[in-house]
Amino acid sequence: MASLASPSPSPSSSASPSIIYCLTFLLSLFLLGLFAPQFFPLRKNQERQPPIPINEELDDLHLFELASNIELSHAVPKISHLRTANSHPKIAFLFLTNSDLVFAPLWQRFFLGNEHLFNVYIHADPFTKLSPPDWSIKANFIPAKKTHRGSPTLVNAARRLLANAIIDDSSNLYFALLSQRCIPLHSFKSIYGSLLGNPNSPSSYKAFGNQHRHKSYIEILSGEPHLFNRYVARGPRVMLPEISFDRFRIGSQFFVLAKRHSLLVLKERMLWRKFKLPCIDLYSCYPEEHYFPTLLSMEDPKGCSHYTLTRVNWSDSIDCHPHTYRLPEVSPKLLRQLRTSNSSHSYFFARKFAPDCLKPLLKIAEEAIFRD
């Protein structure tokens, strides 16, 4: 009786499972690309942003290193003539904009008569055509790069402003980041006095020696709604091990940083490697609201206020933009309300205002803004 033996598999039958697995894998990739936007929707009017080009990254790193070493260097280019023993401590006002500075006439009144106590730096999107600001003050337009909302490019733009301000004038001890839609809520004298004391007092020069005590005013929040979604926006475990969820923080994009914290931000490299990574969930991805609060919370939480000095109204936000104040809303009463804060300082600045608010704001400025 002939023995029964299993037939040897033909080459075609042994290859078929591999073909099936390959086709299944390709089909999965196709379905992922087709349906992923439904699970991770793009924000309105936003496309997926490419990573920061390596040449831009290297340029910025060189700039940040230059600024970080400025205090120790004896031969750094562009040292300001203001680096003298008689210089007053100054506030650097950093405008981050992609449109005209329509409120320049209001800021002109704010700065008037205090030219020895401040500097202005502007990072203007180079792909946007801007009209010259309508003011007579000196403003430094720094070398700028393209920025995108909800991307790490805004983090580097803010750091570019900090670096240029530090290199330009060693008397800059505080750095206020502002947008083109920000307005002041107090006089310059009031804001300067709150941060650095009376400029006419001989003791004002002590601010240079007391920089290690200067506090930064930056919003640092935990336990907020959707915090976890923001943490995992790049992937479930991407932020580990450097940043665990319990150390992740969020806050306002706009801040007032002391010089010591500005230098810390420019020297930092480890967390930046995480925050510059592309996001999967763009709806929850706002590096400009995550990087600075997380870093400063991890490095010096007691040296920060944990609240911002820029008032923003999120009560009726649209597409993740805050409320925009319009012409009919502008009044002395509104500005008094915007000053009110639960913290130890009232709000210094407010955003965001529509361009047509300029004229009524100029009319009530002396009464409602500059009279403290």
TrEMBL record:
<dbReference type="InterPro" id="IPR003406">
    <property type="entry name" value="Glyco_trans_14"/>
</dbReference>
<dbReference type="GO" id="GO:0016757">
    <property type="term" value="F:glycosyltransferase activity"/>
</dbReference>
<keyword id="KW-0325">Glycoprotein</keyword>
<keyword id="KW-0812">Transmembrane</keyword>
<keyword id="KW-0328">Glycosyltransferase</keyword>
<protein>
    <recommendedName>
        <fullName>Glycosyltransferase</fullName>
    </recommendedName>
</protein>
<feature type="transmembrane region" description="Helical">
    <location>
        <begin position="18"/>
        <end position="40"/>
    </location>
</feature>
<keyword id="KW-0808">Transferase</keyword>
<dbReference type="GO" id="GO:0016020">
    <property type="term" value="C:membrane"/>
</dbReference>
<dbReference type="InterPro" id="IPR044174">
    <property type="entry name" value="BC10-like"/>
</dbReference>
<dbReference type="Pfam" id="PF02485">
    <property type="entry name" value="Branch"/>
</dbReference>
<keyword id="KW-0472">Membrane</keyword>
<keyword id="KW-1133">Transmembrane helix</keyword>
